[in-house]
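Annex B.
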Amino acid sequence: MSKSNRSALLGAAFLMATSAVGPGFLTQTTVFTQALGASFGFVILCSIVLDIGVQLNVWRIIAVSEKRAQDIANLVLPGLGVFISFLIVLGGLAFNIGNVGGAGLGFNVLFGFSPESGALLAALIAIAVFLVKEAGKVMDRFAQVLGLLLLLLIVYVAVTSSPPVKEAVTKTFFPDRIDVIAIITLVGGTVGGYITFAGGHRLLDAGIKGKAALPQVTQSAMSGITIASVIRVFLFLAALGVVSKGLVLEQSNPPASVFQLAAGTVGYKLFGVVMVSAAVTSVIGSAYTSVSFLKSFHKSIATHENWVIIGFIAISTSIFVFIGKPVHLLILAGALNGLILPLTLGTMLVAAYRKSIVGQYQHPLWLAIFGGLVMLIMAWLSGYTLLTLSFGE
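Divalent metal cation transporter: predicted C-alpha cells.
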C-alpha cells in the first residue's frame, strides 16, 4: 500500500470520527449523562452497534459502485438522490452553524474572544485548509492531528474525574431506564445525515474504490468507528465522574463545567482546546461532505469544489454571527439526521442488490441483515421520537 493511500485511509477514518465528535456531541453527551447517570452507557452501546451496521454497509457500497451516495440514490429511484441531497445539505448547514458557534465558545474560553470573533477565526482556519492546492491531503492530516489531540485531552480529564467505572459497566448492560430520544439524538449526531458519508466520499475522491479496495475500506470504516467510540466512552466517563460526586453543572455550558470541575482552571482551558479542535474539524468535515452531495448537479461545482466549500463555511459563519443561538439548532439537527438515516441506509441496501449499480459484487448476507435491522430500528425510533416530540410523553 502506498504512503498516500495509507494517509487517505487514516484521514477518512479521522474525518468521519471528528465529524461525529463536534460541539453538539460534547453537549449531548454531557447533558444526557447528567440526566441518565451511568445508564447513559447503554445509549452509547446502542449507538456504537448501530454505527457499525450503518458505516460498514454504506462505505462498502460506495466503494464497489464507485459512485457518490446521491448518484446511487438516483439510480435506485430517479429524483431520490436530489431529495436526499437536499436533506443532507440542509442538515449539514444547520450543524455547521452550531460548529462555528462551538468554536467561538472554545476561543472565548481560551483567549476571552467574543463567541462571534472566535467563530470568525475558526472559519478562517477552516477556509485556509481549502485554499491549499492539495486540500484533500491537508484535510486528512488536519483531522488526524486534531483528532488525536482531542482524544488525549478527553482521556486525561476522564482519568482526573475518577468515574465509577464498575457502575458504568454494569449500567451499560443493565440500565435503570432506557431513553429512546437520547439514542436517536446520539446516533443522529454521530452517524446520521452527512456524517454517514464523510469517510466513504473521502475515499472515493482519493481514488480508493472498487472490489479490490474493500479490505482497506472496511479497515478504514472500523478505524473511524473505533476512534469515535473511544472518544464517546471517555467523555461519558469524564461527565459521569463529575455528576456522580453530586457536583452541579453550569447549564449555559455543561461540557465546560465537566472539564472545570474535574481538573480545575487547567481543565477549563483544556476544554477550550477540545472544543476548538472538535468544532474546527467538524466545520471542515461538514462543509466538505455537504458539498460532495452537490457535485453531481453541475460541472462547475465539481470544478470549483474548494471555492464552493469556502462559500458554505462563510454562509454558516454569517448565519451564526448575525443570528446566533446554536444550541437548539444542534439538537434539532441531530434529530433531523436521525430521521434521515433510515431513508439513506435503506437506499444503500437496495443498491447493494442492483447489478446495474454494483456489478457482480455479492454483498455479505450477514451485513445486509445487520443493516436491515438497523434501518428498521432507526425507523421505529424515529417514529417514536416524532410522536413524542409532537404530542408529548
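Residues 254-292 form the longest helix (39 residues). The domain at 3-391 is CATH 1.20.1740.10 (Amino acid/polyamine transporter I). Further annotation is deferred to the next reporting cycle.
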